[in-house]
């Protein structure tokens, strides 16, 4: 517990619709002994005022992001806007000496992520990234099971998943909210968002990826916007196929498909070992947002049985998946600020995931296998 509460300024809060409203505000309110939301900044003062009022906050609405970043009573700047502005906002926050919680993807590509990590390191501030699937109780327990030898030596891992309704489905509900996901140049698509979040968790469980071979395809070159009744061009991939080798030597196979699952089976991840197997399932490939389930089989078992996460992994946290995982990340951030540890997903961790994504893109463009150093 900190001696005084850490004061958070949120960039990008809209009641009822934004990720900050769904996950960050309830997460911070659940940690009210440690954090307080002192400020909100959107594209205008009126927007920030509306967000503060509609969310029932006592925070200060700021007329601009620059004013929030410069405010002396803000310790942490939380960045929850679309990906393209991340770099400028994070750069300004770091220059002002603020700690930063930036949603994933950290940057629009590897170069921006590397630059932000360097800036944070040089300024001596803590930068954490919202790869909150790493903090999910099921992922933490999975990491423990693998480390304890449940499957023995890992022989291979296979992951097949769906990217969700707004990514690669050929239809979006709102052009203003989801249209930018269609353009690959914006850095927010099926590869960078659900695949990126899942790669962050996979690295925690199985270690580093050593080699990548990939294929990216855009099989739905048009998407229909329901609100404006128009067809929009799509350059973002809706089929992502990756094969490779982990640093351990275990082969890895990943296939993400655009759009939602027909049922509630949108994620199938299996870890195969010398002594057993574990399956991780969920409603979609957004491992950071959905309830995950674990099943395992060992030795002569002919069926998989549920692997129940110990109650200690869930006690004291919000029950809902999204604010629960975000709250765990904020708590890790607070521990790091208090104790000088580095337990929360850092900007350097984000760079490592961005490097894998860059390797996937390079392999897909060149048709050649890419090694990651």
From TrEMBL:
Pfam families: Gal80p_C-like, GFO_IDH_MocA. Coiled coil: none annotated. Residues 137-282 form the Gal80p-like C-terminal domain. Residues 6-129 form the Gfo/Idh/MocA-like oxidoreductase N-terminal domain. InterPro entries: Gal80p-like_C, Gfo/Idh/MocA-like_OxRdtase_N, Gfo/Idh/MocA_oxidoreduct, NAD(P)-bd_dom_sf. It comes from the Bacteria. This is Gfo/Idh/MocA family oxidoreductase. It comes from Mesorhizobium retamae.
């Amino acid at each position: 517990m900190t001696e005084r509460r850490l004061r958070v300024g949120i960039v990008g809060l809209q009641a009822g619709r934004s990720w900050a409203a769904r996950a960050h505000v309830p997460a911070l309110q659940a940690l009210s002994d440690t954090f307080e939301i002192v400020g909100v900044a959107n594209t205008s003062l009126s927007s920030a005022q509306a967000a503060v009022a509609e969310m029932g906050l006592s925070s200060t609405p700021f007329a601009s992001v620059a004013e929030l970043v410069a405010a002396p009573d803000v310790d942490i700047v939380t960045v929850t806007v679309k990906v393209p502005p991340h770099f400028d906002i994070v750069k300004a926050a770091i220059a002002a000496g603020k700690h930063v919680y930036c949603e994933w993807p950290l940057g629009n590509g590897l170069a921006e992520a590397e630059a932000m990590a360097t800036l944070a390191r040089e300024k001596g501030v803590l930068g954490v990234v919202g790869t909150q699937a790493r903090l999910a109780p099921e992922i933490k327990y999975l990491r423990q099971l693998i480390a304890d030898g449940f499957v023995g030596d890992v022989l291979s891992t296979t992951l097949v998943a769906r990217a969700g309704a707004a990514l690669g489905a050929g239809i979006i509900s709102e052009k203003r909210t989801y249209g930018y996901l269609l353009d690959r140049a914006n850095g927010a698509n099926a590869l960078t968002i659900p695949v990126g979040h899942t790669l962050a968790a996979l690295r925690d469980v199985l270690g580093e990826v050593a080699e990548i071979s990939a294929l990216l395809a855009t099989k739905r070159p048009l998407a229909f916007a329901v609100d404006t009744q128009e067809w929009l061009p799509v350059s973002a991939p809706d089929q992502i196929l990756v094969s490779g080798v982990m640093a351990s030597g275990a082969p890895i196979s990943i296939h993400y498909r655009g759009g939602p699952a027909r049922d509630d089976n949108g994620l199938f991840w299996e870890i195969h070992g010398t002594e057993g197997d574990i399956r991780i399932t969920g409603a979609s490939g957004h491992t950071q947002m959905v309830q995950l389930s674990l099943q395992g089989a060992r030795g002569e078992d002919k069926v998989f049985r549920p692997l129940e996460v110990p109650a200690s992994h869930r006690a004291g946290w919000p029950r809902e998946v999204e604010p629960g995982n975000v709250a765990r990340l904020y708590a890790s951030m607070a521990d790091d600020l208090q104790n000088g540890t580095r337990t929360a997903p850092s900007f350097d961790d984000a760079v490592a995931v961005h490097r894998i994504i860059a390797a996937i893109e390079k392999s897909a463009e060149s048709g050649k296998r890419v090694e990651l150093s």
